[in-house]
Amino acid sequence: MATLSCYYFRMSVISDLKATRLAQKRTVRDVAKQAGLHENIIRNAEQGRTSPTLSTLERWAAALGLRPVLIVEVATKKVA
Question: What is the tens place of the pLDDT at every residue in 37-65?
Fold first, then answer.
């Protein structure tokens, strides 16, 4: 059960990160470069193919100008 809720939590965070990226009209390549990540990591996560680590989500959020703590609070409320 904990694994399933962890999955939904990460998917909720990824959904919010993608929505923010699109609202900022930024490309996957641009965000990945700023986060120091390979663009396939973000692309695959946004398409639901992978579930990145918490560290990767933090770097991704920071590249979008978001504080990871706020992303976690929003995602927690969605999953609960």
Answer: 999 999 999 999 998 888 899 899 999 99
CB 63 within 8 A of CB 34: yes
Residue 36 carries which side chain, given as an amino acid letter?
G
Please list, in sequence order, all residues whose beta carbon lies within 8 angstroms of the beta carbon of residue 76, skipping any fewer than 6 positions away.
Answer: 9
> How many residues are given for the chain?
80
DSSP designation for 49? S
**What is the domain class of 2-79 according to CATH?**
mainly alpha
Domain ranges (residues) in the chain: 2-79
pTM for the model: 0.80
